[in-house]
Amino acid sequence: MAERLVGKQAPDFTMETVLGNGSDFSKASLSDYRGKWLVFFFYPLDFTFVCPTEITALSEAADQFKALDAEILGVSTDSIHSHKAWINTPRDANGLGQINFPLASDITRTVAKDYGIYIEEEGVALRGLFIINPEGELKYQVVNHNDIGRSVEETLRVLQALQSGGLCAMNWKPGDKNLLV
């Protein structure tokens, strides 16, 4: 039986990353994001079809997330070298081009397993998206089948709802009143 993650401390991680400029390697740990919101998302594989639409859409919205004191970190089970090659490949050649956040390598599959989204038979992660608050508590999780991309607008809406400090009704939008504060 799967263990719930929402409402608990997010599973810790440390992974190698490629920065969005496509030339610098680094490491990212959950503790690096203390004091900020983290939009932490998994995608199945580099050089595929749905994944670049999600990554480039999130990259184009990076300033909106930054304005909400949120960082973005993408992760797949590919190597940092595959990530680097994908970032350094132009979009018109099935690449990403430069992006506005790092991509992490979960080559050991440990983090995908810890977050409950690893597909053992395929060796890849499902499309899992997690919002982690500044104290490290996992506040939101959505997992899609790998055939279906996620929504930047919905991710922004949920982040703002979580930051609103109250109860948010169905279809709550920024500017709407909360049910209780």
From TrEMBL:
Q: Which UniProt keywords apply?
A: Antioxidant, Disulfide bond, Oxidoreductase, Peroxidase, Redox-active center
Where are the catalytic residues?
Answer: 51 (cysteine sulfenic acid (-soh) intermediate)
The cellular component terms of Gene Ontology attached to this UniProt record, alphabetical and capped at eight, are: cytosol
Signal peptide feature range? none
Gene Ontology terms, MF aspect: thioredoxin peroxidase activity
The domain of life for this entry's organism is Bacteria
**What name goes with this protein?**
Peroxiredoxin
**Span of domain Thioredoxin:** 4-164
Q: Which PROSITE patterns match?
A: THIOREDOXIN_2
**According to its UniProt record, which protein family does this protein belong to?**
Belongs to the peroxiredoxin family. AhpC/Prx1 subfamily.
